[in-house]
Amino acid sequence: MKKSTIRVILWSYSAKMELELKENASRTLLTLCKIKFYRRNGEKNCYEKCLKKKRNYREGYMIGITEPRRVAAISVAHRVGEELNLTPSHVSYHIRYDKEVTKETQIKFMTDGILLQEIKQDFELSKYSVIIVDEAHERSIYSDVILGLISLAVRLRRRRFTDNIPTNGKILLPLKLIIMSATLKVNDFAENRRLFPHKPPPVIHIESRQYPVACHFAKITHPDYLKAAFRKVVSIHKTSPPGGILVFVTGQQEANTLCSWLTRAFPKMEDQEVNINGSEKSNKTNGDRNGRTKLKETFELTTSPNPSSNKSVLNEKDQFATGIDLNNFDIIPADEETEIGHTRINPKETVKMEVKEPNKVVDNVDDSDDVEEVDDDDDILGQISEIRNESYPGPVYALPFYSLLPPERQKIVFQSPPENHRLVVVATNVAETSITIPNIRFVVDTGKVKTKVYEPATGTSSFEIIWISQASAEQRAGRAGRVGPGHCYRLYSSQIFSSMEQFSVPDILLRPVDEVVLMLKLYLGSTKLTLFPLPTPPLPQAIEAAERRLIALGALKEIANTSGGVSRLITDAGKWMTRIPVPARFARMLLFANQCQLMPYAVILVAALSVPHLFLSQASDTPTSEQEKTFQSNFVQQFVRSKEDLCLGDLAVLLGTICCLDRYASQLNGLIPAEPGIIESVGGKTYVSRDPEGALRQLVQRCGVRWNAYKEVRQLRKQLTDILNAVIPDLDLSIDLCLSKPSSSQIIQLRQLFLVGSPCQIAKKLNVSVTGLPGNERRRLRYAYEIPGKKGPVFIDSNSPVARENFPFIAYLELHTTSKPFLRSVCAIDPGWIPFLAPHSYAVSELVLTDSADSLNATETKTTNQNVSNESTGDVCDNDSAKPNSPVSFPTPSYDAERDIIVTGAKSITYIGLGVVPDSSELFDNQFLDLPSWVVVPINGVAAIQSIGFKESLTWSVRWFTRYLLEGVIFPEFKMWFPSKIKKSISPHIVTVSWGVIRPEVRSLVSILVSDKIDSKRKLLQQWESNIQCKCIMILYYDKLFRYL
């Protein structure tokens, strides 16, 4: 290995500034060379031989280094290139949607997700000689899975190298794995026998020349840590020598608020006379004001639906059954071997919102969905006033820093501050590791972090502000000792520090593991997931919940194994889903979207649902005027003005927003004629022609959409389009920037498609008792819903256009808990769709298998059931849906020609979801949702089989199919020569009479069809075409039956 390559390995460990580690280089390299699987034979070698061997070993391979965040991968790659005096073509980075990798790349920095995708394509990682997992202490789900997969790849490559087995015509040299961290819980790795089965790997401890950092604990832990941080920064600025200050807070709003306080407390010299209350107003130019007026008029003229559309009501005759066949995988080639929510301005509250102070330094979007605005109070304003009246220590240069900050603003913190300014960086935990901000001498640690906590038993996620671990506290303190001796001021007592956990809890114990389980099933097959080498295995309850959800999505299936138990294996559909870089539920939507020609719309929806924080939040600095607030409200409301759009709910807003902005992008780029007022609203023709992207950015933000989120949606849309064209033969999908609005039938199909991807996320309107509750409680529960596994009511996010609509059933993207549980990204569904589009997510009892009376006229039975079936396939958007709901009358079996199956009713049909674990202590007695009594289910479906058994279910399905076949329902052309009655009082309905199988001719005919499992028109035609014997036997028995009757 080259000396520079050795240097970069050590540098990545702890020398991201110019710290000398030469005394450790020889010892570290020798240790790496002595690792047994690193050599072919394991003989002892001297240092010079190691160098030679490493140099030969390196030829033709890359060194891959993973970083937990995109900003870290980019910044470290650039820093290493500068250190080694190499160009970006030699030291490159690769993150999602952006890369600098070339054929000359020798060192490649990337995020965990990128390496995970490469492992899917090349399990042996044949392009790499060394994989370095940096910042392993962060324990993200991807990094843990990567370590498990690489440990298997290391063993495989060593074995193939020892046995001289080539891979793609080349014998690969053994692969090295280096795990690096400054605060790693070593025992989870070094003593993990599944991760390292042969012997524990060597642990190399490098003593870096970190400058001393003095840690100061607070005597009293102040409950309001943000105010305490403000006071501490003020004290440091007044009394301490020059040097940057790094403050750790929990989220974007806190970072922006603290920056605002500091900027007003220590402004520039020329701004001393500025009013500290921020009452000065920014004057808008007449041109800008006129532009917004024209743009508003443009939206009203060009995007408002026709007046008649406001009266659009979905008539019963316009509805149809589900057009999605879950058994149709035509997009998967026959020869093929077979990874939210948003916050936006509430249009109902825009008029009441106050104008924010112009001086307040804020940004576009919250760091999480659970951010509450932190307002100025009299205490802070009083302190700022006192500071301004005291001796002036000089201005501060306060900058926020968090993951959702635009890249151009993130780069500012790495630049030198203005002359005579003290740099103050207010950051989330993104600045805790991986990156080094220059010239930081003081750290103010609040000791808090905001984390997303997931409860696998109920499927609930919530953001919680918790204490950090001791390891994180040490990481934060270390930021002050990079360029010289520093100080860390901890705003909590030493007693609090002693009570902190030593290490952070791994993400795999806190997040859903659906994607992990699906990917591991692809590699492990029927092998138990507990045998996979993970540093920390997920909880059994989390695995069970994930597998249940994947079964509901059709990605896994249950089969009986040789030991009498049940194994869960990946299906062909599941293998296809793993090839799409989105969560499995979104991949399932794309799997079936092409059946109804919905792929262009589905790709946009999946991209928009996959990118969080699409809309600007109420706490952001945009908008600031009532005119802009009203404009944004109108922009959102235009997409849900008709009833059919309202049923699509949040999906209509997402789809309409992206399509509308794409159309504006086309106009600004001159691809299509511009609408009146668009060009003028963003600076005029000259500015648009010079900087169309800048003009589009203004327009996007003015519409209330976060620019970076919109760009990511466009990038993901393009990526999905390319992947789908590659994996679906003859798809020929393109990006239409002027995509038309979906028709009424397509809107219904999009709702059905969302249900296909959300079989475990369904809620039912809460039945509120009219009596026994006080008036305020009834009003509170007026728009409440209930979901399986969650005790108590849940509510639709107040920003949703359907938050004040009473749909009987809805599907949602996620359940999020703040002060109360909220459902996000919601659309209305018909409960009659559930048995057909979510077949694993409901249960039945007491199926109706015969007519209500054996003497019931067959024609009347068929007609009655067909009416019920037609009603059940209609749309349920009305708040008061008039569906048959008699407590004593249930649908009897009938033939559903649309789906080509026999359907029937049941005394009890309950939605169970499958996203919860039934034996969980978190659940309660009435944990499932009752579906309306008019809902029909497949008589041979999963739920029916679980209720009455496979044989009984198939037999009754065949008997009813035979009856409708003889009555001419299946083939209407048969009806002309099938008499309704052969003998007096005897008709074909005898086949479905409970005692009908006593008749030998009925029993014989049914047994023939049961043996071939013929209970649908499709199966009958397939058997008829492929089996001549079937034709003869069926004709013979039909003739025998008719003669006997």
TrEMBL record:
Keywords: ATP-binding, Helicase, Hydrolase, Nucleotide-binding. Residues 273-292, 860-889 are annotated as: Disordered. One of its GO terms (cellular component) is nucleolus. PROSITE patterns: DEAH_ATP_HELICASE (PS00690), HELICASE_ATP_BIND_1 (PS51192), HELICASE_CTER (PS51194). Residues 860-873 have a biased composition (Polar residues). Residues 281-292 have a biased composition (Basic and acidic residues). Residues 60-202 form the Helicase ATP-binding domain. GO terms for molecular function: ATP binding; helicase activity; hydrolase activity; RNA binding. InterPro entries: DEAD-box_helicase_OB_fold, DNA/RNA_helicase_DEAH_CS, Helicase-assoc_dom, Helicase_ATP-bd, Helicase_C-like, P-loop_NTPase. Residues 347-524 form the Helicase C-terminal domain. GO terms for biological process: maturation of SSU-rRNA from tricistronic rRNA transcript (SSU-rRNA, 5.8S rRNA, LSU-rRNA). It comes from the Eukaryota. Pfam families: HA2_C, Helicase_C, OB_NTP_bind. Belongs to the DEAD box helicase family. DEAH subfamily. This is Putative ATP-dependent RNA helicase DHX37 isoform 3. The lineage of its organism: Eukaryota, Metazoa, Spiralia, Lophotrochozoa, Platyhelminthes.
